[in-house]
Amino acid sequence: MIEPIIVVHGGAGNYTYADISRCLRGVRAAAIKGHQVVQSGGSILDATVAAVEVMEADPEFNAGKGSVLTVDGKVQMEALVMEGEHMKVGSVTGITNVAHPISVAKLVMDLPHSILGFESATAFAHQNGIPFVPDEELITPASLQALENFKNKKISSAATEIPG
Amino acid sequence: TVGAIGIDSNGHMVSCTSTGGMNGKLTGRVGDTPIPGSGGYCDDNIGTVSATGNGESILRYNVSQRILAYLEAGTGAQEATRLAVEGMTKRVGGEAGAITIAKNGDVGIAFTSKRMSWAYVKGSKLYYGINPNE
After folding, report:
1. pLDDT tens for each residue of A37-54
2. Rounded distance, CA A38 to CA B36, Å?
3. Which has fewest Cβ within 10 Å: A8, A9, A18, A74?
4. Are B57 and A120 in contact (CB under 8 A)?
5. What is the ipTM of this complex?
6. What's the rounded Cα separation, in Å, for the pair A22 and A4?
7. Which residues of A touch B40 (CB under 8 A)?
8. How many whole angstroms separate alpha carbon B107 and alpha carbon A143?
9. CA of A36: which chain B residue's CA is closest?
10. Around B73, how many Cα atoms within 13 Å sit in the side-chain half-sphere?
């Protein structure tokens, strides 16, 4: 018998000192949420998806609300779910207008395919009951500022400034 | 990028990863996160991983699959995670971090970036950190 465990991360990167306490609060909340789902009898799949949803809803993290932006100011998100018993995969890329890409990836896992992309992934989500979320609910002042900094070359490259 | 991995009392494992991608990326850019073996990977016979960092490097180096290969060769979760992210930085450049659970419940957390926030509950204790060696 193995002791159930959920481990979460909030992204690798530079983090400014101001970010640190907010990010630690976010990852602690996600780990506790995942643990609670397992303790109350939920599956390990439900527990890990619930933990990621906590962080997707937290504008502090580069996922869901608070995602970084494309060079033309758009949100295009990605997510992957993989289970280890049958090694089934559910994955979305370039998805927009949803709050929880990870929940859409979980739906894709039950298809005969593994990866759905871009407008088809977004359409699939809305056709399967995932609510439409307008861009302005996903874009934050911090992500707009980060894009501005990148465009003004105040930061060396996109990859080094925003965790994850 | 955010991630969650888990193992239940029967040894079933899951890997979940979600991201907005890279600040200032071209429209249409696909990163490592949606690609099994790069942004995440999971096999009940070996372990489960979620990776984060410079997506192009993680994608090219197949970070998550390499961690499972190290586990399969008998390396512990912490060492497997460290070897893969450091190997990536050395071989293709860029920074990365990953979280790993081996099939025996062993946890690995490593990163070559300045920081990576992480947390887990084991027993009734909450462990968390963000700086190296925490």
Report:
1. 999 999 999 999 999 999
2. 25
3. A18
4. no
5. 0.98
6. 27
7. 80, 82
8. 32
9. B121
10. 11
